[in-house]
Amino acid sequence: MADSALESWLGDFRAAHSQLEFAWIFLRDDPRHDVYGAFEVLKQEWLDAVYAIHAPNVAARKLQWWMEELQLAREGHARHPLTQTLFADPRICPIPAVRWNELFHAALLQLEMPPASDLSAQLAQAAPLHGAMARIETMLWFGMGADPRHAQAMAAAQHLIAALRSLPMEVDYGRTPLPMSLLARHGLSQNALMEDGPTRRAALRDQARGLLHALNEAAKLPGPLSLFRGLQMRLDRRALRRARYASEPLGAIQRLTGGFGALLDAWRAARAWHSARQP
């Protein structure tokens, strides 16, 4: 029953993140296949609680439940199939409680985050939550001594790219994926972002250029990336490069590479992951 429940969770995640499907090919024979998958699904559960629930009090209750579940899991009493799978792995147990606590503390703070003034402020706002996830992820994939700086910076930038890709939902939830300075530069209001036109397209191209620069700066930092994050980074970079000059930049950002290009990106991400793993 536990195995079938886990497969259901993993199946739903894979269906919702089809751009990462090629990564599973290179993960298939790894004995920690389910552990890595369970952590990806858990991350998405926590992110959905923060970003996909309209009512902050409901989101806070869901995050509180997960905090309690993580505490039980650390004590050997996990109830959820995802935490049962994750905490059955010996590499997750040494991760200090403070790392989990800072993740959920940052998640709760994110519920009331004000609009950011510019791209640097956007990255700074995203860093506590997404950096905390990246630190745990790095320890899980590469061991306690692995340098998380590359993954931390990449995680913050990738969150902003994902928000830009989900622009209609972001605006519907009362958020803007563009910083206030960029809205002001192009004479846009938050509600105007729902309407396509030359002004919005120009603003999106500017944001794409800034985010591509952020990805490139993150890539200069030391430390490894997990297979999934490494693949997503390559897909994001391709999408942003297209969006800088696309006649319809939102569509270019939303269109993630498929076919041989995505397979090649997955192979490169897998090669980097294997190279960085501890013996």
Task: Assign a percent range to the helix content.
Answer: over 70%
What is the CATH superfamily classification?
Farnesyl Diphosphate Synthase
Order of H and E elements: HHHHHHHHHHHHHH
Whole-number total of structural domains: 1
Detailed description of the structure:
The protein has 279 residues and is mainly α. The protein has a single domain, classed as Orthogonal Bundle (Farnesyl Diphosphate Synthase), CATH 1.10.600.10. The protein has 14 helices and no strands. The longest helix is centred in the middle third of the chain and has 24 residues, at 119-142. The radius of gyration is 19 Å and the shape is globular. The chain starts with a helix and ends with a helix. The mean pLDDT is 94.
Question: Outline of this structure?
Answer:
This protein is mainly α. The protein has helices at 2-16, 21-27, 33-51, 56-74, 81-87, 97-110, 119-142, 149-165, 167-172, 180-185, 198-219, 227-243, 249-254, 259-276. It is globular, with a radius of gyration of 19 Å.
